[in-house]
Amino acid sequence: MKTHLARPVRTFARVRQRILVLWAGIAIGVAFLATPAKFLAPSLTLPAALDVGRHTFAIYNRAELALLVLLVVIGLASRAPRRWYLALTVPGAIVILQAVWLIPMLDDRVATILAGGTVPQESNLHAAYIAAELIKIAALAGFGFSAFGQAAGAPTARRLRDRKVGGGDEVYKTPRGWHAMPRD
User: Fold this and answer.
1) Among candidates 25, 114, 19, 6, which has minimal Cα distance to 69?
2) Residues of the chain under the 50 pLDDT cut
């Protein structure tokens, strides 16, 4: 009985994991590095920074939706396990929620400021966006990095425990328990 996955399936699994980690990196770069940095630039006025931010997050959200669709398509093509789709529900739900509710609400606030109006200072929208990004990044990075070993065909406990000895067909079955493991 062969325990290794077929080569194309393993390749798809590796691609899925790399896309998850890439997506987490993009999220960190846009939400927590580039966005705060533009507000630190003394030559950039607040309205200009808000307008740049509005366009940045619109493009960023579309890119995230594209990554989500790409991951689902790759998952379908590679016959990914159910846990794959369950892991995508958290970042997927967050991206969709941001696209249909949170980003439009923040865009309305920016449009009011750019039009010269005033907005109430007490809004939890930015805090909600930051919390959503942190949860999304944790889910993407956590699932992406934890699945790297599985995708790369790392040895499982069973394969380490039940291994062939002497190049023959005989399989050595190690008794359970760390103290029973033979020393090489």
Assistant:
1) 19
2) 1, 151-152, 154, 181-182, 184
∠ CA 97-146-163 to the nearest 5 degrees? 150
Tokens 């990196």 belong to: 25
Within 10 angstroms of residue 167's Cβ, the number of other Cβ atoms is 6
Domain boundary assignment for the chain: 7-156
Taken in order 107, 113, 117, 118, is the CA torsion positive or negative? Answer: positive
Q: What does the alpha-carbon distance between residue 53 and residue 35 come to, in Å, rounded to a whole number?
A: 7
The whole-number pLDDT of residue 140 equals 96
φ, ψ dihedrals at 6, nearest 5°: -60, 150
Structural element, H or E, at residue 107: helix 103-114
Q: How far apart are CA 166 and CA 172, in angstroms?
A: 10
Pairwise CA distance, residues 88 & 90, whole Å: 6
Amino acid at 90: V
- Cα torsion at 92, 97, 98, 100 (round to 10°)? 120
Helices (H), 115-174: 125-146, 148-151, 157-161
Which single residue is written with the structure tokens 């998952």?
75
* Single pTM value for the model: 0.76
Tokens 């790297």 belong to residue: 148
Nearest 10 degrees: CA dihedral of 159, 162, 164, 165?
130
